[in-house]
Amino acid sequence: MTATSDAAVQAIETTGGGLHRRLSSFGCWLLALSCLSPVLSVYGVGADVLSHAGTGAALLFLLGLGTALVWGFVYAELGSAYPYSGGDYVGVGRILGGWAGAATLALWIATCGPSTAFMCHIVATYVGELAPGIPANAIVFGALIVATLVGLLAVRTSAVITGVFVAVEMVAIALLIGAGFYHPARGAEVFFATPMAPGSGGMMAPVALGILASALVNTAYGAVGGNQALYFGEELRDPHRKMGRVVLWAAMTGGLCTGLSVIAVVLGTRNLPAVLGSAAPLSAFVSERIGPGTARVLSAAVALAVFNALIAQTMVNGRLLFSVARDGLVSGAVGRLLARVEPASGTPRAATIAMTLFAGACCLLGGHVLLVFISGLIVYGWGLVCLSVLVGRAKGLTGGPGFWRAPLHPLAAGIGLLMAAAFAIANLADADAGRPSLILLGLVVLAAIAWYWKVLRPRGWTPSITDIG
User: Rounded distance, CA 411 to CA 73, Å?
Assistant: First the structure.
């Protein structure tokens, strides 16, 4: 067994046996990349940044690559030391204490249903454009059901299916990047020039500093990812040695695909006022450079990419609830059912179905309400993860022998805390969704900490870790 920093490792027994350790590094990378979905980031966050920051989006997404690297470094170190199906809350709780584990767990449980439902609504939006005759609710719930059915398959089978979708997504990304960098309309000087965006009368005008600052935070949202790999840690072979590299590969693949795509749009667009002023700048860019037929094909690729992310998200949700039940936080027969792993497939079937039902209920909520639930997650969750890596390295709980170590420590974790503060400021400035989300999730954190001190601490609870070798 790989050496860990804990004096002893608890062995966890679950009805039906444990998760099957059959996932390769490549399969884990595919599942993580499916979750973060570069095409969705480009067509979602990337399009928004292009609309508001104009040509400044090129520099912002160049900086976003650095943000993705910081994110990857921090999560790679935490995930290498604590590669468990509970994701963040296990490592955070073991390092900072049960109160932090309870708070992190509550954040993820509170937001996983709304975030899954939000993906379902995005799938419905793009499919509705391609097939307007299908009712939106039929697409929403149909996508959720089919994604869950795929997520219930053996993890290697699910990885193969999502891998096929990722391949299609990478072709779409390559098409976008190639269209921009082949005979570009402008050169590297755009990174140093005054950012310009469409103004009144269709003319290009300088972008205000405040808009750039807000767009930078949105860029960071779109550029980061890879932490989803942690939820498959108990199915990854030799996880302590491999998890750090998987997280970093996924983080940088997603960051590069997203960043280069947006930069390509800025460099390659011929008619900046028309493309950047469009309600759908990515589709307008593809129509300009390749043709409207290709733009329609890429819209189909976006729907497929979001559906692929939905599959991976249902798998993540199921493993999170499985870990919660295994930790004894759900008692009695229900807890035993949710902690059960199906022997044939090696999947936590009951937990996955339960989380799908939760997500299905959230699908009945409007898109704005869902945004209020999920917007503030990165502030609290990311802040606790960065603090955990700082404290964990000081205590010898992360970065030890056999674990992945972030270089130039504590630089990445320190920058990460500054990022969390920037996200908080941006959310506070957003009275529509960001500020209500900070308040709502702040109450969730306080309730979880109170629950820990009132109920869990007297039991001596901390997140459980298994002997994973």
Answer: 10
Please list the alpha-helical segments (H only) found in 327-433: 332-338, 349-362, 367-374, 377-395, 411-429
b/e string for 70-83 if b means 16 or more Cβ within 10 A? bbbbbbbbbbbbbb
User: Domains plus CATH for the chain?
Assistant: 25-459 (1.20.1740.10)
The closest of 210, 195, 182 to 270, measured between CA atoms, is 182
Q: What is the mean pLDDT of residues 244-252?
A: 97
Long-range contacts of 284-290, Cβ-Cβ distance < 8 Å, separation of 24 or more: 285/176, 285/179, 285/180, 286/175, 286/176, 286/179, 289/179, 289/180, 290/175, 290/179
**Residue 124 vs residues 165, 277, 375: alpha-carbon distances, Å:** 18, 25, 21
Question: Helix axis angle, 25-36 relative to 155-181, nearest 10°?
Answer: 60
Mean per-residue pLDDT, 328-355: 93
CB-CB contact of 326 with 464 (8 Å): yes
- Residue 123 in tokens: 């799938």
Question: In the beta sheet, which residues pair with residue 198?
Answer: 204
Task: State whether the Cα torsion 262-434-463-162 is positive or negative.
Answer: negative
Query: From residue 384, how far is each of 36, 316, 329, 352 by CA, in Å?
Result: 20, 20, 21, 26
The confidence band for 40, taking pLDDT boundaries of 50, 70 and 90, is confident
The contacts of residue 229 (CB under 8 Å, 6+ apart) are 28, 29, 31, 32, 79, 236, 243, 246, 247, 250
Helix spans in 131-208 (H): 136-151, 155-181
Neighbours of 131 (CB within 10 A): 11
